[in-house]
Amino acid sequence: QTLDDDKKALLTFLSHFNSSLLRWNQSSPVCHLWTGVSCNANRDRIVSVRLPAVGFNGLIPPFTISRLSSLKFLSLRNNHFTGDFPSDFINLKNLTHLYLQHNYLSGPLLPVILSELKNLKVLDLSNNGFNGSIPASLSGLTSLRVLNLANNSFSGEIPDLDLPKLSQVNLSNNKLVGTIPKSLQRFQRSAFSGNKVSNNTTQRQRQHKIPFGLSQIAFLLILAAVCVLGFSGFSYTMITCCLRKKCFGKARIPGKLRKRDSSSSPGNWTARDDNTEEGGKIIFFGGRNHSFDLDDLLSSSAEVLGKGAFSTTYKVTMEDMSTVVVKRLKEVVVGRREFEQQMEIIGMIRHEFVAELKAYYYSKDDKLAVYSYYSQGSLFQMLHGNRGKYHRVPLDWDARLRIATGAARGLATIHEGNNGKLSHGNIKSSNIFLDSQCYGCIGDLGLTTIMRSLPQTTCLTSGYHAPEITDTRRSTQFSDVYSFGVVLLELLTGKSPVSPAELAPTTRQGENMDLASWIKNVVAKEWTGEVFDMEILSQSGGFEEEMVEMLQIGLACVALKQQDRPHIAQVVKLIEDIRSVDAE
Ligand SMILES: Nc1ncnc2c1ncn2[C@@H]1O[C@H](COP(=O)(O)OP(=O)(O)OP(=O)(O)O)[C@@H](O)[C@H]1O
């Protein structure tokens, strides 16, 4: 019933715009719109409505959206809305994120309305025509973290906003005057640029003036006397304390020892998830400048990219259109400490050919790892997607060489990590991604050692695991090189090591042949060129010699005895020696 009511309210809202919407998207306006709407876990209320850049104009229809009383996230940014800040939004008491930027809204902000939106964490009203003063009642929004009022016509003095959680402010390009209040002086000057405001150094200078019209010498004498008295008092207290300690043995430490605050460690910014009692927290790597936090992640639109053995992988597009990959880890078998230690090691690795671990989250119920997103997809998709279909875009030899070069360099960097002790443990084509220049980048780093081990039977049939691997949690740099060799063979043959059926024509019935054995088999019986992917062979250019060299590297990597395999640094050198792709 409640969901129906919510839907009705939303449809009433939409009905005001039908004509413009139809003009905007002839094909399927409603369909598109519903993708921006999501419900709570019980599916009985609408909690998030995002309708950015849909071409809405006119007033925000009153008592439509505001009837969605469970709404937490509302984005109507980049439309053409006019009129005042909607006074009926006072009903949206659960709202945490409000994005109304880039519209034509105007008029003053009514203090009473804002003070009621007590749960707001993000308020973005930038790039509108709001005027009047900035209401001091914003101080009541104690959860506020982001406040963007830039590019409006706000005037008067900036109120003292005592908001401890506030981490981003932008009041630039308004008509504000006076001094920046103390509570906001921790923010960069650029947050206030384009106004006639100063920070209160002039006030401070005034305070430094000698009081009561005393002459400078008299003032200095008094100051010296105060200092001497202060010093004597301090020394007296220290001496008595020491004596007391000596006389009474163990002295009690006054006050409480403060717990170390992880947010003060450089490079890490810790945000507690207010909703979890179990101490869930998200840790970011690489400085404080993160455009998202846990709420943003959880309230952003997510698309399932796939489900692996240990995790479900989502592509998450944030309100600012940046995209990350979030892996919800299902089978973590280590405790918080070990999990955090592993993530810290991985978070230190920064290399152009290794997918960056941006953040992680640990709570009793949920463990997340946030990586950078590669829009070109994985090597697996590039090699095997749409095979045999007319719209397949073939992957040429140059691209394959570039992928091999990048991925080998990425893996070499990983093996240097943790004082040269780090291994990946899950090198395969679906974990190698293509960057904008078609270099291969290694993804999914750091998960195998903290997850449940795969059963041995799975290892044997996975096609990528080295024969000595019986426990996927105990991978080694040798086994990584083996898996990388399989990827090279996959690149050359265009055959997937995980589908033995592809190798079937040359295997005897019932024989379970891996890619390396299949290649050796074919090379022994036929000529070497038989193993290469037809897609590259049909390409003009005569790259066969280069491909044979790569085949030798791949076969060296998949040597059965681990000590016979080359070190990854050697592999990088050998691949680069085939042809340097960088200059191209
Ligand atoms: N950072 C990323 N950028 C783009 N696509 C990704 C990223 N990480 C994973 N994917 C894609 O998401 C899908 C699911 O990935 P996931 O890692 O869950 O499964 P998998 O790689 O098939 O198996 P495994 O769990 O063993 O790694 C795969 O198609 C993978 O290529």
TrEMBL record:
Pfam family, one: LRR_4
Main location: membrane
PANTHER family named among the record's database cross-references: OS05G0588300 PROTEIN, PROTEIN KINASE DOMAIN-CONTAINING PROTEIN
Species of the source: Capsella rubella
Alphabetically ordered keywords of this record: ATP-binding, Leucine-rich repeat, Membrane, Nucleotide-binding, Phosphoprotein, Repeat, Signal, Transmembrane, Transmembrane helix
Gene3D superfamilies recorded: Phosphorylase Kinase, domain 1, Ribonuclease Inhibitor, Transferase(Phosphotransferase) domain 1
Subcellular location: Membrane
Single GO MF annotation: protein kinase activity
UniProt: ATP binding residues: K327
InterPro entries attached to this UniProt entry: At_inactive_RLKs, Kinase-like_dom_sf, Leu-rich_rpt, Leu-rich_rpt_4, LRR_dom_sf, LRR_N_plant-typ, Prot_kinase_dom, Protein_kinase_ATP_BS
GO cellular component, one term: membrane
Superkingdom field: Eukaryota
Protein known as: Protein kinase domain-containing protein
Segments crossing the lipid bilayer: 217-243
Domain (Protein kinase): residue spans on this chain: 299-578
